[in-house]
Amino acid sequence: MTVKSIVSSLTSSPLDLPHRPRRNRRSPVMRGFARETWLSPQHFIYPLFIHDGTGNIPIASMPGCERLSLDGLYREAEGALSEGVGSVVLFPATPEHLKTELAEHAYHPEGLVQRAIAGLKQRFPELVVVTDVALDPYSSAGHDGLVSPDGRILNDETVAILCKQALSQAEAGADIIAPSDMMDGRVAAIRGALDAAGHTEVAILSYTAKYASAFYGPFRDALDSAPKAGDKKTYQMDPANSREALRELELDELEGADMVMVKPAGAYLDVIRRIRESTTLPVAAYQVSGEYAMLKAASANGWLNERDVALESLLAIRRAGADVILTYYARQAARWLAER
Ligand code: PBG
After folding, report:
1. 3-state secondary structure 236-247
2. Are 329 and 309 in contact (CB under 8 A)?
3. Percent of the residues in the chain that have a pLDDT greater than 70, as a whole number
4. What pLDDT does residue 89 have?
5. What CATH number is associated with residue 266?
6. Is the pLDDT reported for residue 10 higher than 90?
7. Where in the sequence is the domain holding 281, given as residue range(s)?
8. DSSP secondary-structure letter at 149?
9. Is 291 in the pocket of ligand 1 (CB under 6 A)?
10. Which of ligand 1's atoms lies nearest the C-alpha of 288?
11. Considering the domain boundaries, does residue 22 fall inside one?
12. Ligand 1: which of 205, 288, 294 to mutate, judged by most atoms within 8 Å of the beta carbon?
């Protein structure tokens, strides 16, 4: 029996199939008609690490990412813009001597992030600059909130500092403030503080469902920001839960969030979908450092085709319901998409 003989016998007696989904997959054009989701650089926010020094320093667990000097940051932002990526989010590496119990450097008017925002907006007014609000890069304890002497993370006291941090970022020119700290009530408090200071146009992208995830490992290496003691489980969400994400969503909407986020993305596609179906706000998802590191490591070993898996992962996040994706692949993906 050869394929040829099978073909000639079958064509004479085709199966009686009224439905043949393969008809819609026959050609690139037909597949284009049926395509439900697509990726474009306009969907990306590009996370960038910065440090207060000269030169760019590679990050071992995140190949292709560096701690950028301010000059390096401006070059990277210019490159991203030219490739269609219109937004960056900044993460500062803070030297140990500037980290304190009360994380005062978080709202220093001449802090690294504040200077970086102003420098970016001066050079590229159209670039949408997003900033992270949380104390971990500035806290000697490495936590997103203030730590009491007995080791508890203090909620309301932290929120007061987060407001100062958000305000200093808005003052420097930030377009979108993104609180990643997971304290209760921070969105309302930050909205109030921004409005009272006249920053009614500055938006809030809330990390609504941010999980206590092991996928943040490489990020904490990149910034030396891992907690010195304990973990983040009393404020970040339990990976076992998804109903709880809807509760956080409801509160963030009531408190005035403009956009909501799910983080990480790849292992939480179901949460992205539930949030998408429960809100009219734009939904963002963060493809975090560990997701990026996995794809990089397997690709470096020749086990996966980097371009194909990276684009497929991003597409899956969009299909799950994300409007916007924060991804370390933003620039590279924009280039890959332009080649197609
Ligand atoms: C800080 C913050 C973290 C990430 C973004 N903002 C780390 C953490 O919460 O421990 C992780 C991003 C990534 O892993 O790519 N609050």
Report:
1. CECCCCCHHHHH
2. no
3. 98
4. 98
5. 3.20.20.70
6. no
7. 38-339
8. T
9. no
10. 15
11. no
12. 288
